[in-house]
Amino acid sequence: MSKRSSRSIVVDALARVEGEGGLTVRLKGSRVAEVMLRIYEPPRLFEAFLRGRDFREVPDITARICGICPVAYQMSSVSAMEAVCGVPVVGQHRALRRLLYCGEWIESHALHVYMLHAPDFLGYASAIDMAADHPQVVQDALELKKIGNDLVSVLGGREIHPINTRVGGFYRVPTRRELEPLTSRLERALELSLATVRFVSRLEFPDFEQGYEFVSLHDPDEYPLTSGRVVSSNGLDIPVEEFEDHFVEEHVPHSTALHSVRRGHGAYLVGPLARYNLNFDLLPPVAREAATEAGLEPVCRNPFRSIVVRAVELVFACHEALRLIRDYDPPGEAALSVEPRAGVGHGASEAPRGLLYHRYVIDDAGLVQEARIVPPTAQNQKVMENDLWHFVPLNLELPKEDLTWRCEQAIRNYDPCISCATHFLRLELLRE
Amino acid sequence: MIRVIGVGNPERGDDGAGRAVARRLRTRKPCGLEVRESDGEALRLLTSWDGVDHVVLVDACRGRGRPGSIHVVDPGDAESLATLQTVSTHSFGVGAAVGLARALHRLPSDLVIYAIEGRDFRVGGGLTPAVNRAVDAVVALLVHLSPPGTASPGPRQGET
Question: Looking at the whole model, is its pTM more than 0.95?
Fold first, then answer.
């Protein structure tokens, strides 16, 4: 193979990712000469048109960034606004936000594990092809996703772009009676999630591990969702307010999404693998046991096994949702009163795809002067490209079609949401 | 009862044709029709016809004829389904919903798909005049749909 001249893998539009993007891998002999995750979806300029808006409008505007993870955008933005205004949201309001977030994790992870990623491992071009041979698997996926959607609907007012989150709390909080019917359905979702872990643990994974720096939120008492300090596997441990002191965004010509690096360290990985590796002990026993039975160690460095980690997080999300509903004690007021205060607010939460950071500057009338949004897919772009730099040379013996398939699968390990990052995926493998 | 589902994105010009059909049809309070709207996302669409035998789906399409032309799309014809317009950054659309539903034996026993050829799918635009007229034509057609078993639904396959 090393005697072959050069070739390229080109995927013009990657399938089974959210948004529009492509991938080019240029090979010279057995050497990778170039890897470009090309994100060409036009910039969406949310940060620009948020300027001048009232701080209370921001959660509903930023929710529109993504149809898969609108709750994440609401959570990071309300945290930032509440930080500026000095009104921390705690107790049952915070618990309800975790519950809403569990719904989003369930629907997003179920979608990715079964409909977007599993076809890669089972040799199907799409979930539709997979459904013909594995109808029950797809039925289970749809059922699981529906339960996640319904949880978001009950708490968020509707399943897509929910409308019930506000700075200070919610517009309306549910009664215990409204949440109770979800219990039996979440118990079913927990069963389906445990079956999902068993199902994905039997897939075949390429032998590929990398020395990533993992970055996620960390809270001493809970698996991270809505808050925490920013920690890394290389010892970083900072409050969210210091995020931009340590992480910088860079423009690269082939992407309309900014690449993120840790200052002085380079690429880093956010998402399920990072959360799991940095917070394993905080998973409930049922999720830790499922992980162990699936063959996962407390630290996993194989990005292809992220599908198993996502399934373990499904178990966590269902278990956590059940716990939160069981312990729910409706707060007296739907929201705390929040008055604007000039200043800078930082917020971060764990979107299904990883850490989502927001920063806003507002004036004393509560109008946004500046907005900064750093989504997980943007942060993972460099690590996705790095994976291919290392993965392709190990697999040059594969026929072009198979290698292209593997490269796309390697990108889908990250469940990229390009719409968020720019605010799809096609692969090019070029041998010159 | 026939469930009519208007599919599309009203914020993307002619992609809103199906939703416009649903909205105008609703104002006519048609007897025997239950009207719904959908953004076309496959998994939601799939559940939107669960438990219903007779479904009419209206969507915009591209590449089938002149703007404003109305087509009956065969749910069994993948190539035709591919012309249905999915202005979404998410990769599952109407074609995927139908394919998935067939694989899972969750297709309505009677599914008719009307597609209106669009011209302009830009963000923020309204319906173009030809598509606007086609929407009215499809509404007029659906208003006269009879309950299942008493009449055939709509035009022959192909362009009207």
Answer: no
